[in-house]
Specification:
The chain has 11 helices and 8 strands. Strands 3-4-2-1-5-7-8-6 form an 8-stranded mixed beta sheet, sandwiched between helices. The longest helix is centred in the N-terminal third of the chain and has 24 residues.
């Protein structure tokens, strides 16, 4: 199976912005094992700005664009150093691809990115994709690595996109406000009724939310890719997800005969 895994900032970092070492180690171990089993894995990773916050240090997420970009420049080094070190322990080579929304909208550039990713997979490399926050502005404001992961999944013809965050999946209501909220295990059609369940808001370190995750699910499922939104605090759940077990919320891709 070819699978794209998107990891949110809340999965990678403590609320302080510093790297959650134990969590990232577990994530890299599970992804390495999944790759060892014969799967092709592409990781779309947030976290550069948060890593920069912990390194500089900054007490809260920057609000002005130059400081966000400076934090991203510092944090991207830390993020890739950590991934390279941890994946190397399991004999996996990683590659870094930094892209912008404009890259993905420009057909020639997007084709070049796609060609590079396909070749990296042929070479048994684990590609790590992130938005180029040091030069982008719109992406930082929107926080749309969710959408980026969907575009990557579609362009790479992945069978599955897994979006890991600090939420268990899509609920019938906000579980923090409604004790009767129920997790929705399967969504067969992403209609207006489902989209209204997204609500608003996100964590203090990240910039996305359920709105961007549902947008990503719409993009990917429209091209036949299944999407699972699940809680990244337990990376071992990836085993069950790849086995088709009921974990988080699974959005079923449209199948064409």
């Amino acid at each position: 199976m070819r699978v794209v895994v998107k990891v949110g900032t809340s999965t990678l970092a403590h609320p302080s912005g510093c790297l959650n070492i134990r969590q990232v180690e577990k994530m890299c171990k599970v992804l390495s094992d999944i790759k060892n089993a014969g799967n092709e894995v592409i990781l779309v990773s947030s976290g550069a700005i948060a890593m920069g916050m912990g390194k500089l240090p900054l007490l809260e997420r920057p609000k002005d664009m130059p400081t966000k970009q400076a934090a991203a420049a510092v944090g991207q080094c830390e993020l890739m150093y950590t991934y390279d070190k941890l994946f190397s322990e399991y004999n996996h080579v990683v590659a870094q691809l930094l892209v912008t929304g404009e890259d993905m909208e420009h057909e020639d550039r997007c084709q070049n990115i796609q060609n590079t990713l396909f070749r990296l997979l042929e070479l048994k490399v684990l590609p790590i994709v992130n938005e180029n926050d040091t030069i982008a502005t719109q992406e930082i404001a929107v926080g749309d690595n969710d959408t980026l992961s969907a575009i990557v999944a579609v362009r790479m013809k992945a069978e599955l996109l897994v979006i890991l965050s600090d939420i268990d999946g899509l609920y019938t209501a906000n579980p923090k406000e409604d004790s009767g909220a129920r997790l929705i295990p399967v969504v067969w059609e992403l209609d207006e009724k489902i989209e209204k369940l997204a609500g608003e808001g996100c964590g203090p370190l990240g910039t996305g939310g359920m709105v961007t995750k549902l947008h990503a699910a719409r993009l990917a499922t429209a091209q036949g890719t299944d999407v699972v939104i699940a809680n990244g605090q337990s990376p071992e759940l990836l085993y069950d997800i790849l086995d088709g077990a009921a974990v988080g919320t699974r959005f079923i891709g449209r199948r064409t005969e």
